[in-house]
Amino acid sequence: MMFEKYDAYKDSGVDWIGSIPTHWNVLKLGSIFAQRNEKVSDQDYPALSVTKNGIVPQLDNAAKTKDGDNRKLVLKGDFVINSRSDRKGSSGLSSLDGSVSLINIVLKPRKIEPKFSHHLMKCNAFIEEYYRVGRGIVADLWTTRFEEMKTMNLALPNIEEQRKITEFLDQKTSEIDQAIAIKEQQIALLNERKQIVIQKAVTQGLDSNVAMKDSGLNSVGNIPQDWEIIKFKYLAKVRYGLGQPPRQLDNGLKIIRATNVERGKIVEKGMLYIDPNDIPWDRNPTLNKDEIIVVRSGAYTGDSALVTEEYAGCIAGYDMVATPFNCYPKFLSTVLLSHYVLYEQIYLLRMRSAQPHLNAEELNELQIVVPPMNQQRLIANYIEKVEADIGEAISLIKQQLEKVKEYKTTLINDAVTGKIKVA
Length: 423
Description:
The chain is an alpha+beta fold.
């Protein structure tokens, strides 16, 4: 969509703003906002959280303190922004009275339409400039104080034009957000369909005309007459990986940790390396092709991935390794991520303790629905194609989603800096 430009522009003298309409004025932030620095208690003023999605009530399970006036007062219409760069983008106009942690800067709008300030100070250009004027030792621990913030330059039209720009952006961003929500829902539905297709394939097979029998498992129901229910220990041999890794290197043997396992795939993010000579002689952590690595502890407990040729010879970290026998490895790997195993068995086991955990004894007792070997191959190949097709569709929607989000960002930036005329 093309938007009209203003009739004439001038140089703002501010790098991050650039040219502005000739009737706009450049003002110091400190002349537009007053700092609200009153300390209060969350016993008197409800605790609010400053997030990338704005200012919201703090979760009930968040830690509270009785140390007196330990927070900053926020009133409806204030703009609040986190001062730390590792919370970049956490800001917004508050629609509530309450209190926020002392690390935030609370601003009371004086010579600016509050809703316009929200759009202006949530735009990427402002956010980058805000942290640029701060100070710190490293980039992810940068802090911007009000003393630095108040020296920032802002370009503003008159109040009436601010209101018109705000009305335009409120309407347009609402429409864009609806489009984003629709695409996110499409992705969710595709993922749901994938799970349904996989669940049906691994519990009922690909032929809907075969005779069925009761599986004895509530989460499965009927299964084909020639299928069996077999414990995991009769399908794979389980061993533990390396345990706590030795000294870490910049190169050497790759070590696969829980963070490298993502729903059936091994990913490179945060990959560590070790010296093969540091591996204890009494451990067998080396991964072979078609083995399955299963996360045994932490937030990723129960996640698993089939070892491909690319990662054969790598080292399993703290997690478990299953070597399939009497079954097709890819089928077993797929089954471990299916609903009736992952959600109805593994997740129930991992929730028995405060810290999610799964051990070899528990893994060995999993009840697996097993078809004849020739059907295992057919089912695994079928699911691989389904995942590829749905994955391609999701990838396309994600690309569209990114373009919509980029359009929203550009639209806001251009409107609040006068690059387009919308009022």
